[in-house]
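Ticket #4471: structure export looks truncated?
Reporter: QA, pipeline team
Priority: medium

Steps to reproduce: submit the single chain below to the structure queue and open the exported record.
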Amino acid sequence: MKEQQKQIVENYVTSYNNFDIDGMIANLDENVVFENISNGKVDLRTEGLDQFKKQAETAKEYFRQRKQTIEDWKFSDSIVSIKINYQAILDIDLPNGLKSGDSLNLKGKSIFKFNEGKIVKITDES
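Actual output as written to the record:
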């Protein structure tokens, strides 16, 4: 089970890096929940595959390039947690003052919850 979960997470991250939305959603449950937590607060939450896909399509327009590199893995029953190094170049100006062409370099954690071989929840923390 651990190897299968690892492969699914690696496929998700590779698809994310390649702006491949269909690849990202290939192993997501129909009722997947996605949460983005920044500075301890949930600043984005989607419920269901359609909402996730819509958000992913919107988010890919923000970046010229983006790359998540997996730094560490933890496995616990139905939970896979990865530490990531995130680098991106913006393709748009953001309301917080960042401009198109600016680089982002962040460290974070993504937690994937599995049920019957599908991802049912993703939590991104930075």
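Status: closed, not a bug. The export was complete when the record was re-opened. Leaving a note from the reviewer for reference: The first helix runs from residue 2 to 17.
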